[in-house]
Amino acid sequence: MKALTANELRKLYIDFFVSKGHRQISGASLIPENDPTVLFTTAGMHPLVPYILGAEHPAGDRLVDYQKCIRTGDIDSVGDPHHLTFFEMLGNWSLGAYFKKEAIEYSYEFLTKHLGIDPERLSVTVFAGDENAPRDEEAASVWKSLGISEDRIFYMPKEDNWWGPAGETGPCGPDSEMFIDTGRPACGPDCHPGCSCGKYFEIWNDVFMGYRKDENGAYNEMSRKCIDTGMGIERTIAILQGKKSVYETEVFTPIIAKVEELTGRKYGADEEDDMSIRIISDHIRTSVFILGDQRGVAPSNVGQGYILRRLIRRAVRHGRKLGIEHAFLSDVATVVLSLYQDAYPELKEHEAFIFDELKKEEAKFSDTLVKGEREFEKMLPNLMKGTSRTISGRLAFKLYDTYGFPIELTEELAKEHGFTVDVKGFEEAFQKHQEISRAGAEQQFKGGLADHSEATTALHTATHLLHKALSVVLGGYVKQLGSNITAERLRFDFNCPRPMTKEEIRQVEDLVNEQIQKDLPVTIDVMSVDEARALGAAAQFDAKYGEKVKVYSIGDFSKEVCGGPHVEHTGTMGHFRIVKEQSSSAGVRRIKAVLEK
Fold first, then answer.
1. Rounded to whole angstroms, what are the CA distances from 273 to 321, 325, 451?
2. Which of 82, 131, 214, 422 is 20 to 30 Å apart from 113, CA to CA?
3. Strands 162-163 and 62-70, how do they pair?
């Protein structure tokens, strides 16, 4: 195998698929636009869902890119040698251009000829079939034709070899996963790829998007079948370099070296210290990418900002565990920036914002710790009067929930005064809190990925009208900083140093409704990024110079770069009403609005 670095793998992959007729496209923002189903972009295919569902992509029907991704379900698992919150995903797509045979052949060629993997070490899985779709003999047959023997082809059930849909509805299909045999002994006669014993290491996944799940739970075959693949850069370079962990590769070793310098601890000397070092390294890397994104957000108590705050504060807390008493996040962030600014130039562009927000949040958390300690001191006299020397889980959770005071620090203070903490009671209270939060999140994100219903399509078009109306009423400085759409309402964030007046809100509403009443046509043109800029099209330009983009025009009123979907005429949209205008964060205002029939 070729011991490639992340930069070498990224380039090799892109060059390979370009040689196969694919067009390289830019990876999208980490903050999904107009998608209420997820907080962050979780996979390379996420921004491409509209095109998988049938929309034409301006770059064609064979695409390749590398994509920033964040998955937040594993935050509490980060600290072990394998889990990450931020990762890079390599992907290639066919939007009806080819299907299983070509996708598998490309994968095999890249793995064996370009990565130098011994074909005898490759094992694959394919879908075993169920009542919704047949056993995937087609994929198995292609693998056999390439020389993969039957004893290395495993038929697996839906929970292992079926992708999607990401929400309750949407595109989905069977997949075929590729694994490298690490040489470790099998854990038993039933050992197979995907087994947790570590014998098999997953390196790539080809998804055959041939179905669409509807609202009734039925799986319907799509007329245009698509390919979606995914290869994680960090995991792949770890196996190519013969490393036991992603933290031993060059994407983390410079970050870890800086943490070692700041703490005086040596990575690899103590497992508890190692866990804290990994948490700091992962969380600051992820925080830099969230802050430095094209649609970067600041720490807050909601949505993406809450996840960012949680990551930053967890990093600070583990820095404190390692003996760091001073501000240190910016020192580590500088290393992250140097590692990634070439591949992701937006990080350099937003450098000042990254460091400003890290410093502010680190200082704010220090204040939180002081307040938490003060509240603990207030509780102490009553605790001392009692006969029990155990602090209840309820009190420990109150310190955590009300003041943001970590349980570990409560335990430290308790120990200093001869107390223990009912950690089990704390965990029960925390679990109950999580269940309530999760129920709320499931309600918020219950729709399918990138819902393209009539209601959301109209609201999507309304964001364009709102954006333009705001720039007319408030001034040309107004830029969209984020949006979120459900079937019931739109949410639109924009830069503004003050609250809007009632008169300004009315003017914006009237201006939007005027365009709706005119029944303006919505047209689309495909052009290069520089042509769109020259036309004055509004955009958060994710695409690189020379890349093709879609420009949607609403009559002569609005012109904006967007992926869609949109109504054909504004007259079908209904009456636009702003429900609320409020602060989102410093210098950022948020509008919530509805369309009423």
1. 8, 16, 44
2. 82
3. unpaired
